[in-house]
Amino acid sequence: MGFENMMADLSNIGDKVIPDTSTKRKMTEAGAKVLAEKLKEATPRTKHNDVKYGHLQDNVTYQGTDIDGEENGSSTVGYGKKAYVARFLNDGTVKMPATHFVDNVRRESSDEVFKVQRESYDKLMRGDR
User: Fold this and answer.
1) What does the pLDDT look like over 38-73, one tens digit per residue?
2) What is the reported pTM?
3) Domain extent listing, the chain
4) Are the C-beta atoms of 27 and 124 separated by less than 8 Å?
5) φ, ψ for residue 14 (rounded to 5)?
6) 3-class DSSP state of 61
7) Would you say 79 and 46 are in contact if contact means Cβ atoms under 8 Å apart?
8) What superkingdom heads the lineage (predicted)?
9) Which helix (H) or strand (E) is 76 found in, with range?
10) What's the sign of the alpha-carbon dihedral 52, 101, 62, 112?
């Protein structure tokens, strides 16, 4: 078997196992949805009523693009305009200890996020149902 034949075979295999950008977006968006739900559950809720932005829990969002809005197969999970508050709570300040709730959710939900992304991959690439 020559080098050209081997490269042609690898090229054909690659089309069957490497997802395109649209498929990647669907996969990562499925994972982002799971992570957003987990973040929403773990986000502390205070009794303070912010009329303009609402509670931090209510601001958890996800999108099927990267942070700049570019469609490259990435998805983003975050807090929108209240992200700075989440950072203070997660990382702490001089006057407030860190809670690490975002870090903990990311770590604890990584297996579930990967599982959902894998199921999405199998369904989209292999036709598994």
Assistant:
1) 999 999 887 777 777 778 898 999 999 999 999 999
2) 0.81
3) 20-126
4) yes
5) -55, -40
6) strand
7) no
8) Bacteria
9) strand 76-78
10) negative
